[in-house]
Amino acid sequence: MKKLSQSLEDYLEAVLVLHLSKGAVRLKDIAAELRVKAPSVVRALGELKALGYVEQEPYGLVELTPSGMAAAKSVLCRHKLLRGFLEQLGVPSEIANEDACAIEHVLSSETLDRIESFVEKNVKKTSKKKESKKTT
Predict the structure, then answer these.
(1) Pairing between β-strand 62-64 and β-strand 54-56 as defined by DSSP bridges
(2) Tens digits of residue pLDDT in 105-117
């Protein structure tokens, strides 16, 4: 998979999020989701089409290709992992979401793996504590 710019990763993630929430994804929906103007979306979609990540007929719906879906899921998983990690640290949800969006593109895979391991261990500990409180 080709390394994408932060901006293109954001567009892929937005297409996937919109697809999951609305089903059909239109150019104007992407612009609203990312708070950008339509010409910016047209430019980004052109790049993503050239890379084989999205398909769109003129004025039609935007669809992820299989490789686009894989890349978008990867970005979304990183985002969710980082948001959850920041929330575990006590960062308010809205800030955690914004910060996750900013840092999801720059961390190495090794760092992400370590964060994932930490989160998994911490969730298990938190779950055990909650269950022991219920039984007492």
Answers:
(1) antiparallel
(2) 899 989 999 999 9
